[in-house]
Design goal:
Elements: H1 25-33, H2 37-42, H3 44-57, H4 61-80, H5 84-103, H6 116-139, E1 147-152, E2 155-163, E3 172-177, E4 191-192, E5 197-203, E6 221-230, E7 238-239, E8 242-250, E9 257-260, E10 263-266, E11 269-270, H7 272-279, H8 282-287, H9 290-295, H10 297-300, E12 305-308, E13 317-322, H11 333-339, H12 343-346, E14 349-355, H13 362-380, E15 392-397, H14 399-405, E16 409-410, H15 416-419, H16 427-432, H17 438-448, E17 456-462, H18 474-483, H19 488-500, H20 509-512, H21 516-519, H22 526-532, E18 534-535, E19 540-546, H23 567-570, E20 577-581, H24 592-618, H25 623-632, E21 643-644
Length: 645
């Protein structure tokens, strides 16, 4: 929380000085030019009346700007004295006059976007709207879909509120102002400049009856931009002492420009502060317990699953981010924050995150991810109509890269051969040879026999030990076995099967005592099996490897690599691209070079999809394919739509 809220007018209007607030030097010169300075010094109200008279005779852009600034300053003075009704009246005058300056047809030829005054008018519009909303929020609960009447001294404002985008009007519990907060948890703050007030919209607690709600974290907050549209007179705008306005709430992820008075106007947005606000919330802190996920996988199983930080969109391609050992989804927030700042990325992609107990063997986590992906598809797209879901991209860091690659592999009987020498001809044959309870046999089958997920088309691995890590040495493995408490159901089912099938299983360690550290040992038999296993031929792999140029005292003892994963283990021969960056293991996915590489890969994915679509169109394919492409393209310059992506 800032000590003093952010306000771009603070310096020019001396808002926080002892002598302030004061009008700007340019406005004072305008008052002199129109012989109004003495009137303002003696009686601001009579000065305002004189300005309106002169504007009725002849609209002057400098005079309209002066009226807007004067009203804002007087509103600040009134608010300091606790006269909120008077302050609202002044803010309303500032808001409507700055709107006229920007959009009035009478001033179209006089407006000069190169003049610093033009941006100052935008700031006056934004800040007078924000101060109006602050007073409204302090007096009542602001809810989209409602109509509010504001009675001020000599004037009445009728404000109709509307939600734009895919949100429901009652979806949010309350709103916070972005200008109240400074970011400490993210490396970058991504904003755009234009009109509107960036807000933090805090989502209401989940509706437990809705199966989709489990994919949204409690306390989730979204970016929203509030914009006030002053209606034209034919639509019932200004009528005597009554002004009718529409207060709209926009989603910056789907709208970065709005149509106002036949002009496309950019929105003022902030995508980063609402994200940081969520990361700082108690609800997120409870869920984000990486150490618990490592040391007590059983307890953290209840938090396991796919999570979305923005509303599900059937038209955008999912990018699923999978964290590594002793980590959580928070490790992806810098990459997520930066990637979302590129319009071409956020228009076509949606980002999901996978949280899992990182203390368990990675092949168990891969098995659970298969199940969780299937459940997600059933919840959001049971009829398999959302084509974007079949172009999914997985991004995995460290052990998460192994979990991700296992989603694209056909096990055949290769993984069965790790634990048994008994020849089998498929999962049914294997299970017929196993003695034990049905639930244990089902767990065994899902772990050792699986097919690729056809919805996944690309996998990006970052700092991944494809051949294991020397970090998993005798000492760390001994510590892991001392401190990592695996779920009883995991160890019990392995112990039970090993006991009831003494001659069937030759390597029971994979079924019984292995934890995450054990699973990453270079001598683990799973790595050569993964390397030679059949892969989905439609999947493309990309790789980013950390190699430190200057090693620390700790990493100097290891081979060439990022300090945890050696280059020889991280490199792969089946990838479309492989990038080496100078970064440690814990930072390799957070640095700008890696994030920019992921952006490049995502754009390459889109380019190939669009090229494929064009080939289909040129071949006069079905109308259905044409409609799907048309729906995805952003509106063009001549489109008469309210919102442009």
């Amino acid at each position: 929380m800032r000590d003093v809220r952010e306000n771009p007018l603070a310096a020019s209007l001396q808002l926080f000085s002892r002598e302030g607030p004061e009008i700007s030097l340019r406005t004072r010169r305008t008052l002199r030019r129109f012989d109004l300075e003495d009137h303002y010094q003696k009686n601001p109200a009579s000065c305002f009346a004189l300005i309106r008279q002169r504007l009725d005779d002849r609209p002057e852009s400098d005079l309209i700007y002066a009226l807007s600034e004067l009203s804002y300053v007087e509103g600040k003075k009134a608010e300091r004295l606790g006269r909120l009704s008077e302050a609202l009246n002044h803010y309303g005058v500032s808001l409507t006059n700055s709107y006229d300056y920007l959009f009035s047809n009478e001033l179209r030829d006089a407006r000069n976007v190169y003049d610093p005054q033009f941006r100052a008018v935008c700031d006056l519009y934004n800040e007078s709207l924000e101060d109006t909303l602050r007073i409204l929020c302090s007096e009542s609960h602001l809810e989209p879909g409602q109509t509010y009447t504001i009675e001020t001294l000599g004037h009445k404002f009728v404000v109709r509120t509307e939600m734009r985008g895919k949100w429901k009007p009652d979806e949010f519990d309350h709103y916070e102002f972005v200008s109240d907060y400074a970011i400490e948890t993210l490396r970058n703050r991504h904003t755009t400049y234009g009109l509107g007030v960036p807000l933090i919209a805090v989502r209401k607690d989940a509706n437990e009856e809705d199966s989709k709600e489990k994919y949204y974290a409690d306390g989730l907050s979204y970016s929203v931009t509030a914009l006030m549209r002053c209606l034209d007179e034919p639509q019932g705008g200004k009528s005597g002492n009554t002004t009718t306005c529409v207060l709209e709430f926009f989603d910056p992820l789907t709208a970065n420009q709005v149509l106002l008075a036949n002009d496309w106007v950019p929105l003022e947005t902030d995508l980063s502060t609402p994200l940081a606000f969520f990361l700082d919330s108690p609800e997120f802190q409870i869920r984000n317990q990486a150490t618990e996920g490592l040391l007590n996988p059983a307890h953290s199983q209840s938090k396991r699953g796919l999570y979305m930080l923005e509303p599900y969109d059937p038209t955008r391609i999912p990018v699923l981010m999978v964290h590594g050992l002793w980590s959580s989804p928070v490790t992806w927030m810098d990459m997520f924050n930066d990637l979302r700042s590129f319009p071409e990325i956020r228009e076509r992609y949606q980002f999901w995150f996978y949280l899992y107990p990182s203390g368990q063997p990675f092949w168990i986590s891969a098995t659970q991810l298969r199940s969780d992906l299937a459940a997600m598809r059933d919840a959001f797209d049971p009829n398999r109509r959302d084509a974007a879901l079949d172009q999914m991209v997985l991004v995995g860091h460290s052990m998460g890269g192994l979990v991700s690659r296992l989603q694209t592999i056909d096990s055949g009987d290769d993984f069965w051969k790790i634990v048994s020498d008994e020849p089998v001809s498929g999962v049914e044959d294997a299970l017929s040879k196993v003695e034990g309870p049905e639930d244990a046999k089902e767990k065994l089958a899902s772990t050792l026999f699986f097919k690729p997920n056809d919805s996944i088309k690309r996998v990006i691995t970052i700092g991944t030990p494809h051949r294991g890590s020397e970090f998993a040495n005798d000492y760390t493995r001994w510590l892991a076995r001392k401190f990592i408490r695996l779920p009883k159901m995991l160890t019990n089912f392995g112990d039970r099967l090993a006991m009831e099938n003494p001659s069937l299983f030759r390597n029971t360690e994979l079924l019984t005592v292995a934890n995450a550290i054990d699973s990453l040992a270079p001598e683990s038999p799973i790595f050569p099996v993964m390397m030679r296993a059949k892969r989905n031929p439609e999947v493309k792999y990309h790789n980013v490897i950390g190699v430190l140029k200057q090693s620390s005292f700790i990493t100097r003892r290891s081979h060439r690599g990022d300090g945890v994963v050696d280059y020889d283990s991280a490199t792969m021969g089946d990838v479309e691209s492989e990038l080496v960056v100078d970064a440690s293991h814990t930072d390799v996915h957070m640095i700008g070079k890696t994030i920019f590489e992921v952006r490049r890969i995502l754009l390459e994915h889109l380019a190939e999809l669009d090229a494929s679509d064009r080939v289909v169109l040129e071949g006069e394919a079905s109308v259905l394919a044409t409609d799907r492409i048309a729906d995805r393209l952003p509106p063009q310059e001549g489109d008469s739509q309210l919102i442009r992506r």
